[in-house]
Amino acid sequence: MTRIEEIFCQRTARSAARAVAAQAVMPGGDTRAAAYHLPYPLTIERGEGPFVHDVDGNRYVDLVNNYTSLVHGHAYPPIVEAICSAAKHSTAWAARCDGQVELATLLAARVASVDKLRFTNSGTEAAMLAMQIARAATGRAKILMARHGYHGSHEDTEIGLIGMEGPRTYLAEFGNVESFECALREHGHEIACVLLEPVMGSAGMVPAPAGFLAAVEKAAHRAGALFILDEVICFRLATGGAQSLHGITPDLTMFGKLIGGGLPVGAVGGRDDLLALTDPGKGMMFVSGTFNGNPVTTAAGVVSVHELTADRIDAMSRHADALRAGLERAAARCSLPLSVNQAGSLLNIFFTTEPPAATIVRTDHEQMRLFHLAALNRGVFLAPRGMIVLSTVVTDAIVEGVLECLHAAFADLAAEIL
Ligand code: PMP
User: What would the pLDDT profile of 9-56 be if each residue is shown by its tens digit?
Assistant: First the structure.
């Protein structure tokens, strides 16, 4: 065992015991693969603002923010208030609530391509619904997505993350227009939709090159396929979503994460004629869900979206720029190679001089694994894959504090591997 792992185990004995208990009732003690890591993930008992606290009494600056859903940090008071006052009047009922219409109106006003919207309970479900609409609209069965892209835990899309094609899934290379054009030329007659992220999140925050999304959108339309943009994590990049930065008008857009204010959520928005296929009055598709658009989630979502202003988006990006520059300096001082992918407030670090095409093909697994634990030992909570996500409640002082801790964690890593 390395010194970093020894310290991790010493500091987190209660989490270790909780991991053993969890294994008795959940496979691997886990219910969420992206957050799993060895020797065991922590048990966190509470969060507030930019911090989380584990069951051993350690406090961490949280740079994961629940994989982007907590854009205003933990237990943001206006959101807690909205949740509590909504919950006082019940958590769900089998009829419309005003919150649904308010959140849908807010999103349609912000995102130019969204005429109408339909809610789900996760980004995964949003992808399933978007694909279902595309299949119904085109009469075709297959999808085309980027190799190593991620659109949730559904078979047709999940295989793309690991780079495999499947019975209903074709892959092309992210950032390579030619590759998408070629797939569409060859298989276009079978393809219902092209699904893309503006920044490949799970792959390590790989931003789409300028012009790429617009060119693929055009190629999809030439082939008679729909163009679907996955804004589940990228909606935070501009008030009009990442699509407003790329000058594109997707047929359908998938939302999730921050639009639920920290509660489970998803949505598909887009062209009126396409969303009309889900209109229950027309009887073409049966799309339902016990918790779709429930009053608590939508109340939290309205506050979350409403408070995500252009100024706050800029402030998050400035903090991310400072963090990135500081990390690059600190790694250089410790003689460690470091590369950083960044899109606004979204970052991913790699211990290589160039970032890989995707996290799955990275070559620095061991360095990343140890650095993740070293960062936890120093009081900074990162995603095991090196993803860093800021929130609107991060301050200059928090950024400075994080840089000090992570500089020390770089030194810990260097002592172990150099
Ligand atoms: N799309 C993207 C781009 C995502 O990052 C995620 C979740 N990480 C999803 C879809 C799936 O969302 P959920 O976890 O809410 O099912």
Answer: 999 999 999 999 999 999 999 999 999 999 999 999 999 999 999 999
Q: Tell me which residue of 69, 71, 126, 110 sits closest to 293, measured CA to CA.
A: 126
**Peptide bond before 209: cis, by omega within 30 degrees of 0?**
no
Q: Is the pLDDT of residue 283 over 90?
A: no
Q: Where in the chain is the domain with CATH 3.40.640.10?
A: 77-306
On whether the 3-71+309-417 domain is CATH 3.90.1150.10, my answer is yes
Atom of ligand 1 nearest to the CA of 256: 15
User: What are the b/e assignments for 83-108, b being 16+ CB within 10 Å?
Assistant: beebeeeeeeeeeebebbebbbebbe
Name the architecture of domain 77-306: 3-Layer(aba) Sandwich (3.40)
Three-state DSSP state, 210: coil
Distance CA(202)–CA(320), nearest Å, equals 18
Measured in Å, residue 13 CA sits from the centre of ligand 1 at 31
Nearest ligand 1 atom, CA 69:
15
Report the atom number in ligand 1 closest to the C-alpha of 122.
15
Which residue among 32, 70, 150 is best mutated to probe the pocket of ligand 1, counting the most ligand atoms within 8 A of its Cβ? 150
